[in-house]
Design goal:
The chain is of the alpha/beta class. It contains 7 helices and 10 strands. The strands form 2 sheets. Strands 1, 2, 3, 5, 6, 7, 9 and 10 form an 8-stranded mixed beta sheet that branches.
């Protein structure tokens, strides 16, 4: 049925892969969705999930260059998001009370999840759960500030829809993380900030083999810092009309780094072609 939808992407994407979530995004775009909010099947909405979302926000802004562990703004526990660079975990962050509150354009917004949040296998193997985050606060990450975000409780506005693209020819545990790095890099060109907000979900995690998760996350542990270093060096163009070309440049770099398969370009071209038709 997915192959009969009329999307080139649906015909080309590998079966039984998380990246087929891209087909859901295309269906949402085709239906005229004014925003797309995504989650996973083991996340349960809290009351706050149903509140009105706004792209333009007044919020605290972190302008610290480099890696910033956003979870530190929401918890006193030693906890970090999946995809965060392990050798940056001891780095301090600017105190929340010292962050300047600004008007921000945030067409990509990540809200956190309580109880069993999206942490990596290293955390799950050695540190305690559950984790419950602070409510009533938010922070936006400015240009040159890196922090991964996931596909479990994220809202996108139409200008950023092309950046929803999940790569298929890479580690399963990195597909949404590497998407987030590409999206952040392109967001910088448009003066968009990446917003992180209070928990509006709780997760009752599906059964996982943690050592298999660890193995699937090794490409991230070893390469996430170099990925972002290389993406930072790319010569990208501002403007919504250039997002497609910028995506191609970013994924070409990941292919050159032997982290994403060359087959990804055919899928990405199909994705962009389907969106153009929509």
């Amino acid at each position: 049925r997915q192959r009969q939808l009329g999307f080139e992407y649906a015909k080309k994407c590998p079966a039984r892969h998380y990246a087929r979530k891209n087909i859901g995004y295309l269906l949402a775009m085709a239906s005229g969705a004014s925003i797309i909010t995504e989650t996973d099947d083991d996340n349960i909405p809290l009351d706050g999930f149903w509140t009105q979302r706004n792209r333009q926000l007044k919020t605290a802004v972190c302008e610290e260059p480099g890696w910033v562990n956003v979870y530190k703004y929401f918890s006193e526990q030693n906890v970090w998001p999946r995809g965060f660079v392990l050798d940056e975990l001891t780095k301090g962050i600017p105190p929340y009370e010292n962050l300047e509150v600004k008007d921000c354009d945030c067409p990509i917004q990540q809200n956190l999840a309580d109880e069993n949040p999206d942490v990596d296998a290293v955390y799950r193997l050695i540190l305690p759960l559950p984790v419950n985050f602070k409510s009533g606060r938010s922070v936006a990450m400015s240009n040159q500030t890196w922090c991964p975000f996931n596909s479990q409780n994220t809202t996108w506005w139409p200008d950023a829809y092309k950046l929803l693209y999940l790569p298929a020819y890479c580690s399963f545990r990195m597909t949404d993380i590497w998407r987030s790095f590409v999206a952040q890099r392109i967001a910088w060109e448009n003066n968009w900030l990446i917003y992180f907000g209070e928990p509006t979900m709780r997760q009752e995690r599906n059964e996982h083999n943690l050592m298999r998760d660890f193995s699937d996350e090794v490409p991230g542990y070893l390469n996430n810092k170099s990925i972002c270093d290389e993406l930072s060096k790319l010569n990208l163009q501002s403007g919504i009309d250039n997002i497609g070309d910028n995506l191609k440049k970013c994924y070409q770099k990941l292919i050159e780094m032997s982290l994403v398969g060359i087959e990804e370009l055919e899928l990405l071209n199909a994705w962009l072609s389907d969106i153009a038709k929509i």
